[in-house]
Amino acid sequence: MNQQWQQEAARVGGPALVQVLNELRNGQLELMANIDILTVKTAKSEAATTRLLSGFPADDVEGHRRYHESVIEWRELRNKLVREALTKMVGAGALAAIGWLVLAFWQAFKVTVTK
Questions:
Q1: In Å, how far from its chain's centre is CA 16?
Q2: pLDDT digits 0-9 by tens, 63-73
Q3: What is the rounded distance in angstroms from the CA atom of residue 99 to the CA atom of residue 89?
Q4: What is the separation, in whole angstroms, between the first and last Cα of the chain?
Q5: Which residues contact 70 (CB under 8 A, 6 or more apart)?
């Protein structure tokens, strides 16, 4: 049957028509194969998207984003507070050390003067 259309095409348009029709058929087969590949890839992509969206509570992508923004904001605030607390502790420690040194010098001075 395959040769029948080739014989008919050769009779009507010669070998050039047979060659053009063969190239056209090969291109069509290649296109169909590409469409099949794209269909499989599209199905996989849709399945991945569905799985990804199922990870959001009630499919609320916007709420999920807002949640992460609030977590980031809370962490930044916590880091700022910790940094400020550490700064104040260092300042208080330095003041305590200076006070202890002043008291030590005062005691040493008193002992020296009373001798």
A1: 55
A2: 888 999 999 99
A3: 15
A4: 130
A5: none
What CA–CA distances, in Å, run from 5 to 13, 32, 51, 80?
12, 21, 49, 81
Distance (Å, rounded) from C-alpha 103 to C-alpha 59? Answer: 66
Give Cα separations from 36 to 32, 47, 50, 87, 92 (angstroms).
6, 17, 21, 65, 73
Residues 75, 76, 81, 84, Cα dihedral to 10°: 140
- Asked if residues 6 and 13 have their Cβ atoms less than 8 Å apart, the reply is no
* 77: helix, strand or coil: helix
The model carries a pTM of: 0.47
Percent of the chain residues past pLDDT 90, beyond the cut: 56
